[in-house]
Specification:
The chain is an all-alpha fold. It has twelve helices and no strands.
């Protein structure tokens, strides 16, 4: 599975590595308040999301049952979205003393991306109505929801309506602009990976993704006038470090490999809430 020299890395090999990187990243994410977890944990953790994204797009391309694949991701994302929105209201006593609570919505990003990618596939099959609908609606949904749902509730000073709309935006009808973990950038990068996967040379998609990654995470800093120094690139805005995941992507041998597929679906939410629970307890003890 991990023999890079002879066989390269399988899909499961990439996922297991991404899982380790993710745990390191989230240890820093949940326990940064202690001042004891080195930021290097998050530097390494930048490799996790791109690897999971790469494997997700590969899974979309090769799965024999896209409906089942989508439902697994969507249903878990809905539950996590409901829990996240709950922290604003009924779960407010469970918010950590410093106002922190988990806002991990990568699966919601993947669910949105899945619909968009299916739209692209339908367009390639010349199923124009379904294809354009699936491609465009998820992308413009934040605009529609804002003017057709949120603004009317705000004008009517309807706090209950706003609460329900917020919950839907994070769960049942996720908006890519409302997702803190992934969101719009993940959707864009996923589209790039899919579109360039149609090229004969499969490595082109990886290079295209790397260019897009740098444009978004470094180019944007330059446009905003931020100085590209050590402080900025390694301590203030270090998302660009995810570009180094290209090294592992290029080791992918095109094989699914052997592993426990269910592990990745359940480990993500399970480890988030376990780590958060531990951080909640530790925060109370330390304060």
């Amino acid at each position: 599975m991990f023999n890079i020299k002879e066989k390269g890395l399988t899909g499961f090999g990439l996922k297991y590595l991404a899982l380790v990187f993710m745990v390191l990243d989230h240890i820093h994410y949940f326990f940064e308040f202690t001042g004891k977890v080195p930021i290097a944990f998050s530097w390494i953790g930048r490799l996790a999301a791109p690897l999971f994204l790469f494997c997700f797009v590969e899974g979309f391309i090769h799965t024999h049952d896209r409906k089942k694949y989508f439902l697994k991701i969507y249903l878990i994302s809905v539950v996590m979205g409901v829990i996240q929105s709950g922290f604003y209201f009924v779960l407010s006593p469970a918010v950590r003393g410093d106002g922190f609570f988990p806002q991990n919505g990568m699966l919601s990003s993947f669910a949105i991306l899945f619909v968009v990618m299916q739209g692209i596939e339908w367009i390639r099959e010349k199923k124009w109505v379904k294809g354009l609908t699936a491609l465009i609606v998820p992308l413009i949904w934040p605009i529609i929801a804002y003017y057709c749902v949120f603004v009317p509730f705000m004008n009517a000073n309807n706090s209950t309506g706003l609460a329900l709309a917020n919950m839907c935006a994070l769960s049942f009808l996720p908006m890519h602009t409302a997702i803190a973990d992934g969101g719009t950038i993940t959707v864009i990068e996923g589209i790039i990976l899919l579109l360039f996967s149609y090229c004969k040379n499969k490595k082109i998609r990886i290079y295209a993704w790397a260019v897009m990654c740098l444009l978004i995470n470094v180019g944007a800093l330059a446009v905003m006038g931020m100085q590209l120094n050590v402080q900025t690139l390694f301590f203030d805005a270090y998302e660009w470090l995810s570009v180094f995941s290209i090294i592992l992507m290029l080791c992918y041998n095109g094989e699914r490999g052997k592993g426990n597929a269910k592990l990745f679906y359940w480990f993500y939410p399970a480890h988030i809430y376990v780590l958060y629970g531990l951080s909640f307890i530790l925060y109370m003890v330390m304060r």
